């Protein structure tokens, strides 16, 4: 177990849980050899003890992490050990399922009971490996356990095939009981991989998994380091589930980051590399360079995971500056941002007309918002003779008109222009763009509307900081208006209104706070109601009701 004496109590809970899992596995062995239904009450009677051990581990974990800084080695170690506790508890549940499902039709003997018993014995040997290695060789033990899991699953597939071959000698109830009992055994084996990941996380941190461990090894090699000498610290939790981590040397405080590790779906990673390279051809100062890419497709798989090693960029995101209430920092960042956008848009401007189709985007994404806040999407209502049009009907009406609101040119856009994808380096006075997998030639209003709504949805709802946020969003609008005037873009205002309506409505899926979510949805509806009434002539002279939208 961990040598840190502070973790001694948590260590004891893990030790007792390992012993209890072995006991559960022993009962499963007995069941497969004897088919004794009385074993079900034996294994059920142990569930209370397992629950008590889990609750003690929960309490101890909370105590250990109280007032402790996140993203430290100690924090990762404790969380990893707690993940191990949860994984071990699940093993006992799958053991119980093996016995419970097998007693659905009794009395009878499992057709492959002896082979099942041998498989459970191999599982017990794998757990003994955990007992030995969890103290000082957690990472190595996790890797070994992961390899054994693959072999055990191969043996399970053979066992299940043998069970199905014996179906002619069994009644329907007996066959069902055998198959379901085998499924419980399969889940028991699969859970071993979760145990393996918990061991790896306790050593490397929450970013590490069995799947990305080879990528981390490659990343360390590309940095000319051994992985055991590096610290992997999570930087962000993305909505897609991709891991973003800082890699630094263990001997240092962690502030001197060597590189940023990012993983995700291979197609998205490939798109991000292409986006970064494209932006860097326009201006090499705009995006961090890609140091390496690992994870290539195998056997024609389309969803293979991949990873990037990216140059670490110093500075703060625009989101951080806004939330900190750093008025001077925000103003400086926006000034540099506007200069950067003005320069890059002019450089990449092409005379190809473009239609953003904001309403089509909205229709594709609104389902998640509808599930989170169903009360926002009522059908048509009548109040004292006034007819309130349904949200979907408003979207349909605006979509019909939107085809006429074309921008006469296209520019290279970011595609996900949120406040957390813009980094400002106050030393170099530079803006960097990150997360560029959606970069494309498109309507620049898309980026502006996404940025303005990402500022609005920051969950500071009052005070000076909130006021500063509203002023920042208005500054983005004024910059866009100036650029549109120079390019003689006559439908800038009406397209921005449609873009804002789209982003306000779809972004409520990320906001649980009803007060903020309601404000956003009402703003989307307000804009849609205005747009739905416009004639083609009025669209040319439409002015965005900025004061009504960005006022609290």
TrEMBL record:
Residues 296-454 form the Aminoglycoside phosphotransferase domain. InterPro entries: Aminoglycoside_PTrfase (IPR002575), Kinase-like_dom_sf (IPR011009). SUPFAM superfamilies: Protein kinase-like (PK-like) (SSF56112). This is Phosphotransferase. It comes from Marinomonas maritima. Gene3D superfamilies: 3.90.1200.10.
């Amino acid at each position: 177990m961990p040598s840190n004496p502070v973790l001694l109590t948590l260590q004891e809970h893990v030790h007792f849980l390992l012993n209890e899992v072995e006991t559960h596995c022993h009962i499963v062995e007995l069941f497969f050899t004897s088919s004794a239904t009385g074993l079900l009450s034996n294994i059920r009677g142990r569930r209370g003890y397992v629950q008590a051990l889990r609750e003690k581990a929960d309490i101890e974990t909370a105590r250990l992490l109280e007032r402790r800084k996140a993203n430290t080695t100690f924090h990762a170690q404790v969380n990893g050990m707690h993940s191990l506790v949860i994984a071990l508890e699940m093993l006992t549940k799958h053991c119980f399922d093996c016995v419970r499902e097998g007693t659905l039709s009794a009395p009878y003997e499992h057709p492959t009971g002896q082979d099942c018993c041998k498989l459970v014995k191999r599982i017990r040997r794998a757990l003994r490996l955990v007992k030995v290695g969890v103290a000082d060789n957690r990472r190595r033990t996790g890797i070994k356990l992961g390899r054994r899991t693959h072999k055990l699953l191969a043996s399970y597939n053979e066992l299940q095939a043998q069970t199905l071959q014996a179906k002619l000698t069994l009644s329907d109830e007996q066959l069902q009981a055998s198959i379901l009992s085998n499924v419980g055994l399969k889940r028991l084996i699969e859970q071993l991989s979760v145990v393996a990941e918990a061991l790896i996380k306790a050593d490397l941190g929450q970013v590490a998994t069995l799947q990305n461990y080879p990528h981390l090894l490659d990343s360390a090699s590309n940095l000319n380091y051994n992985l055991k000498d590096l610290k992997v610290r999570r930087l962000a939790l993305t909505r897609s589930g991709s891991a973003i981590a800082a890699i630094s040397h263990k001997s240092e405080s962690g502030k001197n980051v060597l590189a940023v590790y990012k993983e995700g779906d291979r197609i998205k990673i490939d798109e991000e590399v292409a986006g970064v390279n494209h932006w860097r051809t326009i201006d090499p100062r705009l995006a961090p360079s890609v140091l390496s890419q690992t994870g290539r497709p195998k056997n024609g798989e389309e969803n293979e995971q991949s990873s990037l090693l990216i140059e670490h960029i110093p500075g703060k995101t625009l989101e951080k500056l806004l939330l900190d209430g750093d008025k001077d920092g925000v103003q400086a960042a926006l000034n540099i941002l506007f200069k950067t956008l003005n320069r890059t848009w002019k450089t990449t401007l092409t005379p190809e007309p473009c239609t953003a189709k904001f309403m089509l985007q909205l229709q594709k994404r609104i389902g998640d918002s509808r599930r989170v806040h169903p009360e926002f999407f009522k059908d048509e209502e009548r109040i004292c003779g006034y007819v309130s049009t349904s949200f979907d009907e408003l979207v349909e009406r605006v979509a019909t008109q939107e085809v006429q609101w074309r921008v006469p040119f296209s520019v290279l856009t970011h595609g996900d222009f949120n406040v957390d994808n813009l980094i400002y380096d106050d030393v170099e006075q530079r803006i960097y763009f990150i997360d560029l997998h959606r970069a494309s030639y498109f309507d620049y209003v898309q980026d502006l509307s996404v940025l303005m709504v990402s500022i609005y949805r920051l969950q500071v709802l009052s005070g000076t900081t909130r006021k500063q946020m509203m002023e920042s969003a208005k500054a983005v609008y004024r910059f866009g208006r100036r650029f549109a005037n120079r390019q003689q873009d006559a439908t800038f205002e009406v397209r921005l209104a449609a873009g804002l309506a789209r982003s306000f409505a779809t972004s409520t899926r990320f906001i649980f706070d009803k007060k903020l979510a309601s404000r956003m949805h009402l703003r989307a509806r307000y804009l849609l109601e205005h747009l739905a009434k416009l004639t083609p002539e009025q669209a040319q002279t439409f002015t965005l009701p900025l004061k009504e939208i960005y006022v609290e």
